[in-house]
Write a structure and sequence with these properties.
single chain, 532 residues, alpha+beta, 5-stranded antiparallel β-sheet, 11 strands, 65% helix, transferase, ABC1_dom
Length: 532
């Protein structure tokens, strides 16, 4: 993990050092490099499993600072690893249950039906009522392995903070703590049981949704036992057609279920991919796997409403204040510039100009947003990042099930209720209509301000970023040369005292080469600094 991080950093700095001008061709080459690195990470994660997969899944939620090409490559990263021997699963079950497993079950299939980095799932039959159950067993030494990997991960975060721009625009110690907290929760199956019981209670009156029942007396920190569910993935439209299940009704039920979680106070299902949402023959939707959940606090719903109201009322000072209260903006951010960018972007959306702008203007807008986000210290908390990821996954599933979905029509009555009733919703809507009736006047004004103020700033930002990257590149090379010089000196001393003449000669040659390289790097680095 550590060496892979060093390799990635070196390749990225090498690219920036060789490409001084960032035109369309350079950006395309950069995206190819990032995609290549992301694919290498994904393949290594699939090969080794464990923390690498969990880190990849965590990073795939971080749209606030991860490159698009990297996000696309990691978005499909699925937690699948080779199965462990059944003998370990049986031993752990006997330890957790305090006796022979056949005191509690009649039969269990020794081949697991699912295998992930944290647990294996087996099909079994209970002795008490002869019902089929799914038994999830924690993998061999997974907790010990994860905590060893956590130490390596801490070094990786330190390298990223020192040698990349992430250290300036992201609170990496906070990200590290969030990541460790998330993975530690997934290691405790009692937490998953608690989450499942919460969703059972919260949605007990929703007849379209079923949360599996758990055999709580057999559940421990390392074992989960739940009812067996027969069904197909929620995206299996042909299955629905075969059983005469309305895809529109299924989409509507799923939409209502998740919108309730996203808008209102409480926990939300943070991993709603198609493998965790099943459809049964009678049209019942089954939600499984509550190892990963997020939380919408009461204060969060208040923030969401304030953001919407202030944007509609064109009060961007309060928009920035709300984002500050949500801890989206780190202390060193340029709030004036952030307000300007939000205002200009929203103005274009309100005027419908994003549908009519030519390709060049659209690409320029995307480039400005990319440069701004890469420079400004903006960071989402884990819950907000997981919320954004969950929303995007659910929308993708809804479109796969029912392509003719009208999200605005379905959401409107629920949003109106969420805002507190008809009067408040109507007053905000009237203000929005009032602002939106002036597209002819407001769009040219917003566009003119954007183009006048943006060009010089864009050029300055590119130059500033390029100089900083060049400086960091020299620092990285100097550190590498210094480490290799120390290794060479150590080999000289070792060879001298052990009378290893050949080793001493080679080490002296290496030390000389690295010393000369360091001197040349220092000189070139110094000239680079003076040129600024």
């Amino acid at each position: 993990m550590i060496w892979m991080t060093i390799k990635f950093i070196f390749l990225m700095y090498k690219f920036h050092f060789r490409n001084k001008v960032w035109d369309d061709r350079t950006i395309a080459k950069w995206n190819i490099l990032v995609t290549k690195l992301a694919r290498e990470y994904r393949n290594k994660a699939v090969e080794l499993g464990g923390v690498l997969i969990k880190v990849g899944q965590f990073l795939s939620t971080r749209t606030d600072f991860m490159p698009d090409a990297f996000l696309k490559e990691l978005s499909g990263l699925v937690d699948r690893v080779p199965p462990m021997p059944f003998s370990y699963a049986r031993k752990l079950l006997e330890e957790e249950w305090g006796g022979d497993i056949y005191e509690y079950i009649e039969d269990i299939k020794p081949t697991s039906i699912a295998s992930a980095s944290i647990g294996e799932v087996y099909l079994a039959k209970l002795r008490e009522d002869h019902s089929d159950v799914a038994i999830k067993v924690q993998r061999y030494r997974v907790e010990e392995i994860f905590h060893i990997d956590f130490k390596a991960l801490r070094i990786v975060f330190w390298l990223i903070s020192v040698f990349t721009s992430f250290g300036k625009k992201a609170d990496l110690p906070s990200l590290y703590r969030e990541l460790i907290t998330v993975m530690n929760k997934e290691l405790d199956f009692q937490q998953e049981l608690k989450h499942a019981c919460y969703f059972q209670e919260r949605f007990q009156d929703n007849k379209a949704i079923h949360i599996p029942n758990y055999i709580e007396q057999l559940c421990t920190k390392k074992v989960l036992v739940m009812e067996w569910i027969d069904g197909a993935k929620i995206t299996d439209v042909s299955y629905m057609h075969r059983h005469q299940v309305s895809t529109q009704q299924i989409a509507r039920s799923l939409f209502d279920f998740y919108l309730e979680q996203f808008l209102n106070e409480g926990m939300f299902h943070a991993d709603p991919h198609a493998g965790n949402i099943l459809i049964q023959q009678d049209g019942t939707i089954v939600i499984i796997d509550f190892g990963m959940v997020g939380e919408v606090r009461k204060q969060d719903t208040h923030y969401f409403k304030k953001l919407i109201q202030n944007i509609i009322m064109d009060d961007y000072d309060r928009v920035i204040e709300t984002l500050d209260e949500m801890n989206f903006i780190l202390p060193q951010a340029n709030r004036k510039k952030l307000k300007q960018m939000i205002r200009q972007t929203i103005a274009m959306y309100q005027n419908g100009s994003l549908n009519t702008m030519d390709a060049h203007t659209m690409e320029q807008l995307k480039e400005d947003i990319r440069l701004f986000i890469s420079d400004q210290p903006i960071q989402l908390s884990a819950d907000y990042a997981y919320l954004g990821r969950a929303i995007s996954i659910v929308i993708g599933i809804l479109l796969a099930i029912y392509p003719d979905i009208d999200l605005q029509k379905w959401a409107k009555p629920k949003i109106k209720k969420w805002f507190g009733g008809r009067n408040l919703a109507e007053s905000i809507y009237k203000q929005y209509v009032k602002d939106a009736v002036q597209p002819v006047l407001s769009f040219p004004k917003a566009m003119l301000g954007w183009l006048e103020n943006g060009e010089k700033e864009r050029k300055w930002e590119r130059e500033k970023q390029q100089k900083q990257l060049t400086h960091n590149y020299f620092v990285l090379l100097e550190v590498i040369c210094f480490v290799l010089l120390l290794v060479s000196v150590s080999c000289i001393l070792f060879g001298y005292y052990q009378n290893l003449g050949r080793l001493t000669t080679i080490a002296i040659s290496g030390a000389s080469i690295f010393a000369v390289m360091m001197i040349l790097l220092f000189m070139k680095h110094y000239r680079n600094i003076r040129s600024k």
